[in-house]
Write a structure and sequence with these properties.
The protein is an alpha+beta fold. The chain is built from 14 helices and 6 strands.
């Protein structure tokens, strides 16, 4: 097998490590590409290519994360990881998703809630947790990746695990139930059916939007009735001018990509579901976080068109 082919075989794993450390699709892809460049330039023949490349991508990701943390301190509004489609992973990444149980475990580890918990860890804790708890690396390989002793890595892993367990998100475990409820939610939303929406929303449902201060509001915690009214006011009028909701699994959770009439992307939604109700709706409308999904629409222009359409219909 050529070096290129060996690398490509491990690319999904390297991306999965980098994305969980960084929370950014673009930065993760850049880290993987930089890993390839370093691998192609070296004359080293490692005993384990998987361990070697994982070490390189982890070190690159840690360097990027440390500078990204500084930028995030000045971020406007809620910050979410870049939305990542996960509904196609099972067939493409069989080397990582070896079983349905493993696929579920990995999907949960990339959920918005889990990635936001990882943000609370130090960069070293985050890297060690990802390598140990998500990808089951041995401590010898982890120590080499983060340039710390095995004893130090065990302590970092233990501390990270405690932090993650303390805030561990709760989800509806049955994937089929989650998908069925999401289907009912998006159908009611398309129909603008206030009563059906209200039944599906938790009494203290929270809607949170990452618009980066440039696209859309930030959301808030509302009662089910008010949240349903906000949704009906905002979305069906967009659909009336040609926008569409494309249901997808994003970050291991039921969700949707909202597209304009030309297919360009307005934003994404993910749903946190528990006890047969939607507990939280997370949306991302910051255009800087959507480009990996396709061409990005001008949300402000689309909202203006929506408002004009609504005004003409009302006059």
């Amino acid at each position: 097998m050529t070096p290129e082919a060996e690398f490509e075989e491990l690319r999904p794993l390297l991306f999965s490590i980098a994305y969980r450390i960084l929370g950014s699709v673009g930065e993760a892809e850049d880290a993987v590409q930089e890993t390839w460049l370093r691998f192609a330039a070296t004359s080293t023949e490692p005993d384990s290519l998987k361990a070697y490349l994982s070490t390189v991508v982890t070190r690159i990701s840690l360097d990027v994360l440390r500078s990204a943390r500084v930028r995030r301190e000045t971020y406007v509004g809620p910050w979410f990881p870049d939305p990542l489609p996960t509904d196609t992973f099972g067939g493409e990444h069989e080397d990582i998703y070896a079983s349905p149980e493993r696929a579920t475990e990995l999907a949960d580890s990339v959920s918005m809630a889990a990635l936001l918990l990882l943000e609370r860890l130090s960069p070293l804790e985050r890297a060690v947790f990802v390598l140990r708890e998500v990808f089951h690396f041995g401590f010898a390989d982890i120590a080499a990746a983060v340039d710390r002793s095995e004893a130090a890595c065990r302590q970092l892993a233990s501390r990270a695990r405690r932090h993650m367990d303390d805030g561990k998100p709760r989800f509806e475990a049955d994937r089929r139930k989650r998908l069925e409820l999401a289907d009912r939610f998006f159908e009611a939303l398309r129909d603008g059916d206030l009563e059906r929406l209200q039944v599906l929303l938790a009494a203290d449902v929270e809607t949170v939007n990452d618009g980066g201060g440039v696209a859309g509001g930030v959301g808030g915690r509302y009662g089910a009735e008010k949240a349903a009214r906000i949704l009906v006011t905002a979305v069906p009028p967009l659909l009336a001018i040609g926008a569409r909701l494309e249901q997808r699994e994003l970050n291991g959770e039921p969700g949707a990509i909202l597209r304009d009439d030309d297919g360009s992307i307005l934003g994404t939604w993910t749903l946190d579901i528990l006890d047969d109700q939607i507990q939280r709706i997370r949306s991302v409308t910051n255009p800087a976080k959507l480009g990996h999904l396709g061409p990005v629409a001008d949300l402000k222009d689309v909202v203006r068109r929506r408002n004009r359409h609504r005004h003409h219909r009302g006059s």
